[in-house]
Amino acid sequence: QVQLVESGGGLVQAGDSLRLSCAASGRTFIIYRLGWFRQAPGKERELVGGITWTAGVKHYADSVKGRFIISIDNAKNMGYLQMNSLKPEDTAFYYCAAARPGTQYEFWGQGTQVTVSS
């Protein structure tokens, strides 16, 4: 199994930047891709973006494209979500998740809260 732990959330002002980290442990060799999700109160969980663990191929939701950057350091088993030009609508609980090849995301972290004030 894979264990994921997020960190780096907090309270920031609109326009600020914040970097979330996702530490992976356990059987990390089975990870094919790492994703970042978020869920705001009263809303469904949204995929923010993802990256393949080895090749580093990235994709982003339209809502964050150009502002957020996903990266990994697989030597350290770390994933990152750099969030720039934050907006109040980015306020949510953020999760990282891992998927094996050909499967849905099945390993999840506990999440970290990001709050953006206007």
Q: Would you write up a description of this structure?
A:
The protein has strands at 2-7, 10-13, 18-26, 33-39, 46-52, 58-60, 68-73, 78-83, 92-99, 105-108, 112-117. With 118 residues, it is mainly beta. The strands form two sheets. Strands 2, 4, 5, 6, 9, 10 and 11 form a seven-stranded mixed sheet that branches. The chain has a four-stranded antiparallel sheet with strand order 1-3-8-7, with no helix packed on it. A hairpin with a 4-residue loop joins strand 7 and strand 8. 33% of the residues are buried. The mean pLDDT is 96.
Question: Which labels suit this protein?
Answer:
118 residues; four-stranded antiparallel beta sheet; 0% helix; globular
Mean pLDDT over the full residue set: 96
Strand-residue fraction?
over 45%
Query: Radius of gyration in whole Å, from Cα?
Result: 13 Å
Count of distinct strands: 11
Provide a compact summary of the structure.
The chain is an all-beta fold and 118 residues long.
Layout of secondary structure:
Blueprint: E1 2-7, E2 10-13, E3 18-26, E4 33-39, E5 46-52, E6 58-60, E7 68-73, E8 78-83, E9 92-99, E10 105-108, E11 112-117
Parallel strand pairs: 2-11
Antiparallel strand pairs: 1-3, 3-8, 4-5, 4-9, 5-6, 7-8, 9-10, 9-11
